[in-house]
Amino acid sequence: MLKEINEQPKSVRETIGSRIVPNSKTVFPDLNLTKEYLSSINKVFIVACGTAMHAGLSGKTLIESLCEIPVEVEAASEFRYRNPIINEKTLCIFVTQSGETADTIAALKLAKSKGAKTLAISNVVGSSITREADFTVYTHAGPEIAVASTKAYTSQITLLAILAIHFAEILDKNLEKCEELKNDILLLPNQVEETLKTAEQIKNFAQKVYKEKDMFFIGRGADYTVALEGSLKLKEISYIHSEAYPSGELKHGPIALIENGVTVISVLTNRLLVEKSISNIQEVITRGAKTFIVTNQELNHEFDEVIKIPKTNSVIAPILSIIPLQLLAYYISKEKGLDVDKPRNLAKSVTVE
Known about the structure:
This protein is of the alpha/beta class. Helices cover about 45% and strands about 15% of the residues. The protein has helices spanning about 1-5, 10-15, 35-40, 50-65, 75-80, 100-115, 130, 150-170, 175-195, 200-210, 220-240, 275-285, 320-335; strands spanning about 45-50, 70-75, 90-95, 115-120, 135-140, 215-220, 240-245, 265-270, 290-295, 305-310.
């Protein structure tokens, strides 16, 4: 797992590949989606399981902000059993690292049967889902062996960002925003390298908290989607019970669980939401919580641990802000003496229902 965390500068670079070239349009040779077709779409579904679904939540933000098409993100195991409203005006995107996830493949077949176009995002060339989908694009993250997904997740968000730009360019929408975002994406590999330098600071914090039984993750907007993924990583490999909530939802119930000594992990990367989020963090501090903050903003407040990451566009910030949470889960698991790469009860690819 640590090897794969550290491979993320390369996997993000490979996923970008030749798809983004400065001052020219994005390139997807295997995708022949026309302006006429994309203009007819009134809804996009992103369907996946686990970590891939969390990547899909970032995809939702990207597609909605650039293409102005409503996007729903759903767990494949739910989607396939609820008779979703799909027709030829729906584009369904299926995200799976292995391309063998049983529920995701079944969901794709359901979408096809209802007349929707299907697009698979996979890391494995020639996998089962790629043979079923109308279109396939690959992440090029390289083989991922550890059960807990790390580099596949950041590559999936990178690819979804480039796809969103590609769709927007075909639709002639938000082209200035697209150009800015392309420049920001090209900076990501070096920024991921920079973020990995926080490892020693995170390792020291892990040594202080690894015996805890409960942790809480909070964030707003894209930061909340990262909180969900960070919480999943911690559960998967350290067996510590954790929950992720939108920061503003704390006062609607979860704050009852905050007591002296509990660790609350917060992600703060959106300049427009910082002050609101800080007021939520102060609420947990007054109740005795320890705080671990991942941010690219200037904070004029005292917290127990602040991990600084490079500044980037808030819609792709999850590619950077998840890395400290991946490292935190890893170091906590190591402190507990657990098998990081093969956590109990889990398989790398869930090929059964």
